[in-house]
Amino acid sequence: MAARDNKTGIFILEGLNALSLAFYFLFIFFFMQKKFGFGNMENLLLGGLAGFVYMIASYICGRIARRAGYLRILVIAFGVVTIALLVGSQLQSVTGHLVVVCVAVAGIGFVWTPLQALACQHEPAHRVQRMVGLYNVIWATLVAIGYFAGGAMFEAWNLSIFIVTAGIHFTQFLIAIHLLRSSRLRDKLGTQPAIAADETTTRVAPSIARAFLRMAWIANPAAFIATNVAVPTIPTIAKRFDLSPTWAGIFCSVWLFARAGAFLLFWKWPGWHYRLGWLLAGYIVMVISFAAILVGSNLVVLLVAQVFFGLALGLLYYSSLYYSMHVGVENQGEHGGMHEAVIGAGNFAGPVVGALALYFYPANPHAGTWAVSVAMGVGLIWMLRVWALRR
To answer: 3-state DSSP helix/strand/coil percent for the chain, to nearest 5?
Structure first.
């Protein structure tokens, strides 16, 4: 019962973290546009900076989290992010806000990896699908709800993205302390369950399993390249279609709900496991729908493209996390850190490529879109090469 209660607490922390992601880390681009006049290039560079910091922090976390203690790291990270956001609510300078973004992102880089490992810890391999599915549905649904409602919240009170988010992280800080104390008590009583043996229930050859893990680690950052070019440009898309922040949050959250739906689908239907066709199809659909979102000339195209974009992103993210947790349960913490680090790499590379394209081809407003699409095409070739050399 104690272990089950601990898992419930972990999923509560995860859901709250997803809300904070939507409120601050997605609406900071609207804030910078309104307060400091940031355009596409500046917001893309901001996204790239955040991605670089997240990549480094996640990689370090993956290397040290298991030894340092997952819950201990969560307590420290939630405390750091809470303080950073409260300080950010009082700042008036661009430099100050850039520092706050870096500190907050670094803190979050020490959150997702422990949450993933704790969600799957002590679970046999045949239950990893269930735990990863539940984990994905929770965070994706709450990110979608947060973005859907966050536009109205931001429009009503700009500083809410700092104050409300800081309140969420302080609540997480208190919950994490409680879980840490409970965990220490269970250790003293000797009731901590043993780690289950790794059962490769799919009976996939180790070389094939490793190939899928590597391909997923290529596909997932490409997906985040796409999302982290799309998200910083949403304020510009909203302006193109005369959408207020409230309506931008509503209309441009379609892909987030589609991604949550994809997580539910791929949780309940495991037929995509270790199937090359599904992984490649998801990647190709992601590239096409990404381009359609950024260059679409009407709201219908934007709506339909978002649906396919979200479905493809759901498959690619799920693949990366599932294979990270399934291929060698003894390395879940390290694999989770790598899973998040490659997300950070995508968060960094996408905006930087987009910003450079706009810098060198300022007359073409879609230069960033095409440059990023080409970069993702290179990722597809890389995946095929991994598959060809799998043995």
So the answer is: 85, 0, 15
Cα distance from N-terminal residue to C-terminal residue, the chain: 44
Reference 107, options 91, 89, 84; nearest CA is 84
DSSP letter assigned to residue 252: T
pLDDT, tens digit, 9 for 90 and up, residues 344-357: 777 788 788 878 88
pTM, rounded to two decimals: 0.81
% pLDDT > 90, the chain: 49
Q: Give the distance from CA 363 to its chain's centroid.
A: 32
Phi, psi of 269 (to 5 degrees): -120, 105
Q: Which residues of 199-212 are buried (b: 16+ CB within 10 A; e: fewer)?
A: eeeeebeeeebbbb
At 225, the amino acid letter reads I
Rounded CA-CA distance 36/149 in Å is 23
CB burial string 301-314: b at 16+ within 10 A, e below: ebeebbbbbbbbbb
State the Cα–Cα distance between residues 51 and 170, nearest whole angstrom: 24
203: left (phi over 0), alpha (psi -120 to 50) or beta: left
* In the block, residue with structure tokens 């609540």: 171
Cβ contact 150:22 at 8 Å: yes
Is residue 46 within 8 A of residue 232, CB to CB? The reply is: yes
Tokens of residue 165, six digits: 């988010």
- The C-alpha atoms of residue 290 and residue 343 are separated, in whole angstroms, by 17
Q: Which amino acid is at 220?
A: N
